[in-house]
Write a structure and sequence with these properties.
The protein is mainly β. The protein has a single domain, classed as Maltoporin, Chain A (Beta Barrel). The chain contains six helices and 36 strands. The strands form six sheets. The chain has a 23-stranded antiparallel β-sheet that branches. The chain has a five-stranded mixed β-sheet with strand order 1-6-7-4-5. A two-stranded antiparallel sheet has the order 2-3. The protein is globular and about 65 Å long.
Length: 686
C-alpha cells in the first residue's frame, strides 16, 4: 500500500516538474560523483586499448573476444581461434594438438608448432629455437587474444611468416572475485575451471586453475591436462607498475595412429599401434615471468620484461624421446610519441635476446617405455633480436609505417654418445638477417580503414627441423617477401576484416613423413628446403547483423600455396592444407523475452579435395560439417550453453601427414576428425 502511495505521488508531480522546467531552470546543489573502480593496469591493456593498438597496424590483425568464444565449448586452440580471421586452427583428433598456421606458416606441422610467435601476456611461449607447445595455453584464463598476421607482428619483434598470437590474461582489474565453469560432453569429455581476481589497494591478482580430460573419439586418444595460471601486479606509483606471472601445465596425451583413407571411411575411431606400440606425448611445463611498465613522461614509456621456462617432454614415437629444456629471455621496449617535420609521430624500439639449452636422450621404444639408449644430445639455441617501428602521420587520416627487424640466431648440437667419429652428429649453424617493412594506413572514415604493406620475413629452423629425423638435417633459414592490401571497419549492420596477400618465399621449410621399419601406421618426419615457393591467399572475416535478431559470423580462408618452377614439382600446389575453408554460424540473439538467449547452426566447409603428397597422387576428401549451438547469459551470475558438433556424423580428415610421392597408393596419412559429439556447460560468476 505504501508503494502505491509513493508511485501516485511521483506520477502526480510529473506535470508540475515539466511545468517548472518549461518556466525556468531549477538550480540544484552540486553533487560530486567519485568512481570507486580502480585505475586500469599499466602492464595489461584492457580490451578497448588493445583494439585501438591493433587498428593502428597497416595490415591484417584480429582481436578475439574470449567472452564470445565461451558461448560454446572452450577447450582447444581451434575452439579459441577457429573463427579468427586469417588463422587456420585444425585440431588433431579432437585434442589440444593442432595444425596452427597463418599464411601457410609451419605448413605441414600438426605438433610442436612453428612459424608463429606464440605469447601469453606479451611474453613468448616459444622455446628459444622457435617451436612451441599448444598444451602451454589455457584459453579459459584469457580475456582476449591478439592476432598479428605476418610481418604485422613486428611490434613484438617477430620476423616469421605467420606473425604473432598473444593470449592476454585477466587481471584483478578485469576479473570477477570468483568464476566457476564446468563443461561435459561426449567421449567422457570433462573440463573444470575456477578463477579469482581482485584489487587490494595498489596490488591486484588473478589466478585460474583448470582440469581437462577425455577418452576421445578415437582409440588410444586419451587426454589429461592440469593447469594453473596467475599474475600479481603492484603499482609502485601512478607511473610504475610491475607484474609477476606464473604458469604450470601438466599434459598427458596418448597419440592415435594415422589411418589410410579406406580405414578412415570404414571406422575413423580405430587406431593401429603397429610394431612399436603405444605412442604418447607427456609434457610438464613451468613458466615464470615479470613485466614492468614505466611511464617516463606523457610522451614516453618503457617496458622491461624477463622470463624463464622449464619443460620436460616424454615422447615415445618411432623412438622414445626424453627431453629436458630450460629457456630464458629478456626484453626492453621503448615507445616515444612526438612530432616529425611538424606531424604526429610514434616510435617503438625493442631489444629481446633469448637462449635455451636442451638435454635430449633417445631410447628404443618398447610399448611406450624406455629400452636401450641409442643417443644422447645437448642442444643450445641463442637469439639476438632488435627491432624498430615508426608511425608517421603524413595527414591526420594517413599514416606511413616503416620498420626494421634484425635477427642473429645460433643453433648448436653436441653429440654425447657415439662410437666412431663418423657417427658424431654435432653441428653449429648461425643465421643472420635484417628485415624491412613499409606500409600505409588510411582512415577513409572514422569507421573504415584501408591498408597496404610490403615486408620481409625470416625464420631460422628449430631443432624439430634440424634433428627431427634419424640424423641431423642442416637447413637454411626460410625467407621471403610478402605484399598485402586490405580493409577493416564497422557499420550499423556489418563489421569486416579482409586482406589479400602474395608472398614469394625462398628455402621454405617443408616437412614430409617417413616410416621406420616395422612401423607403417605412424610416421616420423623429415624437413627439407624448397627452392622457391609462392604463398598467396584471401583472409575474410565478417559479422552481419540481420533482420529478425539474426547474426551471421564467418571466417573464410582461400589458400593458393605452390612451388615456383621447381626442378622436380614444377608449379604444383603445396600439399597438406585446404584450398579453402569456411567456418560460420548463424545465431538468433534475443533482446527481449529470453534476454541474452542465442541459438543457431554452425558450419565448417572444405569444398575441394586437396593433395597430401608433393607429387599429387593422393588426396584428402572435401567435407561439410554442421552443428547447433544454444545458450544464455541468464544474468550477471549465471550462463549456460549446449552445443552439438558434426551432427551429420561425417567421416573426414581433420589433418594429414605429407609425403613426397605416394604413387597413388592409399597410405596411413590421414588423421580423422571427431564424429558426432555434444557438449554442455555452465558458468557461475560471483
Amino acid at each position: 500500500m505504501l508503494n502505491k502511495h509513493i508511485l501516485s505521488a511521483v506520477l502526480a508531480a510529473l506535470p508540475l516538474m515539466a511545468h517548472a522546467e518549461h518556466e525556468g531552470t531549477v538550480h540544484l546543489d552540486e553533487i560530486s560523483v567519485v568512481s570507486t573502480r580502480p585505475a586500469a593496469s599499466l602492464t595489461q591493456p584492457d580490451i578497448e586499448t588493445a583494439k585501438e593498438t591493433l587498428n593502428k597496424t597497416a595490415g591484417g590483425t584480429t582481436l578475439v573476444d574470449m567472452d564470445t568464444v565461451r558461448e560454446g565449448r572452450t577447450s582447444t586452440i581451434q575452439d579459441a581461434l577457429g573463427m579468427a580471421t586469417g588463422v587456420l586452427a585444425q585440431s588433431r583428433f579432437g585434442a589440444e594438438e593442432t595444425r596452427l598456421s597463418i599464411r601457410g606458416s609451419g605448413l605441414q606441422r600438426t605438433f610442436h608448432g612453428r612459424g608463429i610467435k606464440l605469447m601469453q601476456d606479451g611474453v613468448p611461449v616459444n622455446l628459444a629455437d622457435g617451436s612451441f607447445d599448444f598444451q602451454a595455453i589455457e584459453p579459459l584464463a584469457a580475456r582476449y587474444v591478439e592476432v598479428y598476421r605476418g610481418a604485422n607482428a613486428l611490434r613484438y619483434g617477430a620476423s616469421n611468416l605467420g606473425g604473432a598470437i598473444n593470449y592476454i590474461s585477466n587481471t584483478g582489474y578485469t576479473a570477477s572475485p570468483l568464476t566457476v565453469r564446468f563443461e561435459a560432453g561426449t567421449y567422457d569429455y570433462g573440463r573444470a575451471s575456477v578463477s579469482s581476481g581482485n584489487v587490494i589497494g595498489d596490488l591486484d591478482y588473478f589466478v585460474n586453475a583448470s582440469y581437462f580430460d577425455q577418452t576421445g573419439f578415437r582409440e588410444n586418444a586419451e587426454q589429461l591436462a592440469k593447469r594453473i595460471n596467475g599474475n600479481v601486479g603492484y603499482k609502485l606509483s601512478s607511473d610504475i607498475e610491475t607484474r609477476f606471472y606464473l604458469g604450470y601445465a601438466r599434459s598427458d596425451s596418448n597419440l592415435p595412429s594415422s589411418l589410410t583413407k579406406a580405414q578412415l571411411n570404414n571406422d575413423p575411431s580405430d587406431s593401429f599401434l603397429g610394431a612399436v606400440g603405444q605412442q604418447k606425448r607427456d609434457i610438464d611445463l613451468f613458466r615464470i615471468a615479470n613485466k614492468t611498465n614505466i611511464l617516463l613522461s606523457d610522451h614516453a614509456a618503457l617496458q622491461l620484461s624477463a622470463y624463464y621456462s622449464h619443460k620436460d617432454l616424454f615422447h615415445p614415437i618411432f623412438q622414445v624421446i626424453d627431453q629436458d629444456t630450460n629457456d630464458y629471455g629478456v626484453e626492453a621496449r621503448l615507445s616515444l610519441d612526438g612530432e616529425l617535420f611538424g606531424h604526429k609521430n610514434e616510435l617503438l624500439l625493442g631489444f629481446n635476446p633469448s637462449a635455451g639449452i636442451g638435454y635430449d636422450e633417445r631410447f628404443v621404444n618398447i610399448g611406450a617405455r624406455r629400452g636401450a639408449r641409442v643417443n644422447k644430445l645437448e642442444n643450445r639455441a641463442t637469439n639476438l633480436e632488435a627491432y624498430v617501428e615508426n608511425r608517421w602521420y603524413v595527414l591526420p587520416e594517413l599514416s606511413l609505417i616503416t620498420g626494421l627487424q634484425y635477427t642473429h640466431a645460433k643453433r648448436e648440437l653436441d653429440d654425447k654418445q657415439f662410437t666412431t667419429a663418423a657417427q658424431d652428429e654435432s653441428f653449429e649453424k648461425t643465421y643472420v638477417q635484417t628485415n624491412p617493412k613499409v606500409g600505409l594506413l588510411y582512415n577513409l572514415t572514422p569507421e573504415i580503414q584501408l591498408f597496404t604493406n610490403v615486408s620481409r620475413s625470416y625464420e631460422p629452423p628449430s631443432f624439430g627441423e634440424l634433428t627431427g629425423g634419424l640424423r641431423p638435417n642442416i637447413l637454411d633459414a626460410q625467407e621471403g617477401t610478402t605484399f598485402e592490401v586490405g580493409s577493416r571497419g564497422n557499420s550499423e549492420f556489418v563489421d569486416w576484416d579482409v586482406a589479400v596477400y602474395y608472398g614469394k618465399l625462398k628455402n621454405e621449410m617443408l616437412q614430409t613423413a617417413f616410416f621406420t621399419a616395422g612401423n607403417s601406421s605412424t610416421p616420423g618426419s623429415q624437413t627439407t628446403n624448397a627452392d622457391k615457393t609462392i604463398h598467396a591467399g584471401l583472409e575474410f572475416g565478417m559479422t552481419a547483423r540481420l533482420p529478425m535478431q539474426l547474426e551471421w559470423r564467418h571466417s573464410l580462408l582461400i589458400n593458393h600455396f605452390k612451388f615456383d618452377d621447381d626442378a622436380v614439382f614444377g608449379n604444383r600446389r603445396l600439399p597438406g592444407i585446404q584450398k579453402s575453408l569456411l567456418r560460420a554460424e548463424l545465431m538468433h540473439r534475443s533482446n527481449h523475452m529470453l534476454n541474452g538467449f542465442y541459438i543457431g547452426p554452425t558450419f565448417e566447409w572444405s569444398p575441394q579435395n586437396y593433395y597430401v603428397d608433393f607429387a599429387q597422387t593422393v588426396d584428402a576428401d572435401r567435407y561439410f560439417l554442421w552443428g547447433l549451438k544454444a545458450g544464455q547469459q541468464v544474468n550477471k551470475h549465471w550462463a549456460w550453453f549446449l552445443e552439438g558438433r558434426n551432427l551429420g556424423d561425417r567421416k573426414y580428415a581433420a589433418t594429414t601427414s605429407v609425403v613426397r610421392n605416394q604413387g597413388g597408393v592409399d597410405g596411413a596419412l590421414y588423421s580423422p576428425g571427431d564424429g558426432r559429439t555434444a557438449y554442455m556447460g555452465v558458468t557461475w560468476t560471483y
